[in-house]
Amino acid sequence: MSETSDSTETGGVDPEELTDEEWRERLTDEEYRVLRESGTEAKFSGEYVDHHPDDGEYRCRACGTVLFEAETKYESGCGWPAFYAAEEENVTTTIDTSHGMRRTEVRCANCDSHLGHVFDDGPEPTGKRFCINSVAMEYDDE
Ligand SMILES: [Zn+2]
């Protein structure tokens, strides 16, 4: 409700203006592979899988946009950080039919980086499970 859509938290950089080379400079190899090439980190490898703060939020690793509130994070046992709700206007979802599966891909609405997928087997109240790569996010405890 206090969201501002014109985020100035990107360090003055408009992610859409970045060249591929600039992305590679800003991100580690693993971050680049996940965020820009729709990769997936190894199961249970991510730094936020067992990370359950009471407060704070998770931002896009590439551009700093707030994606998830810590209070919507839950233990799904799937091997990646899971949330039952996203900051709706800050993520986009599209049908992804790669790898012979029909899944719904989740991307950052600001910089169009790949974050993970959303499934319909989450807990109440939404029934959603946002299954998100740790390297796509940065925890912010404020
Ligand atoms: Zn972003």
UniProtKB/TrEMBL annotation:
GO biological process, one term: protein repair
GO cellular component: cytoplasm
SUPFAM superfamilies in the cross-refs: Mss4-like
Keyword list, A-Z: Metal-binding, Oxidoreductase, Zinc
Enzymatic class: oxidoreductase
Record's compositionally biased regions (Basic and acidic residues): 21-31
Protein name, as recorded: peptide-methionine (R)-S-oxide reductase
Organism: Halorubrum hochstenium ATCC 700873
